[in-house]
């Protein structure tokens, strides 16, 4: 796909109707003001869409007539094409590190109180520490990257499951509030990931 194809690309994102990294891809598009068609399907009714996917699962992103699959690959593509992966390859790797940490956190369901008590504090401490080390208010460099949006998306879900979870992590809590104060981010999270 050539660079000029991506500038005028027509995007269609197909995902399950539950919070996934596909929904993170939708947040990236929304934050950047990129037009895209967003189709969310019930898992029980997703067979037709899954069959079209290279790996038989969602999300998938159609870029013009080309299909991209797997959640984080889609997000990395959007970040690269639309300027959300930082200034250089090192920044891009740092973004991937943060997002991989989020994926590890959510690799098991955090539905029970025991899961939250056992797993969540360690990850929140790590994210809070990373923010303090960078000391810019962002996870990578001096501007918003897809890592910042991924953490905000995750913090929104965490707050819904465990109110007050960010209280002991002031840098992370401030970061979440800063991201949440961006109208496009706030509206997206409230509309697609209600906290109730």
Automatic annotation (TrEMBL):
GO terms for biological process: glutathione metabolic process. One of its GO terms (molecular function) is glutathione transferase activity. It comes from the Eukaryota. Residues 57-196 form the GST C-terminal domain. Residues 9-86 form the GST N-terminal domain. InterPro entries: Glutathione-S-Trfase_C-like, Glutathione-S-Trfase_C_sf, Glutathione_S-Trfase, Glutathione_S-Trfase_N, GST_C, GST_superfamily, Thioredoxin-like_sf. PROSITE patterns: GST_CTER, GST_NTER. PANTHER family: GLUTATHIONE S-TRANSFERASE. This is Glutathione S-transferase.
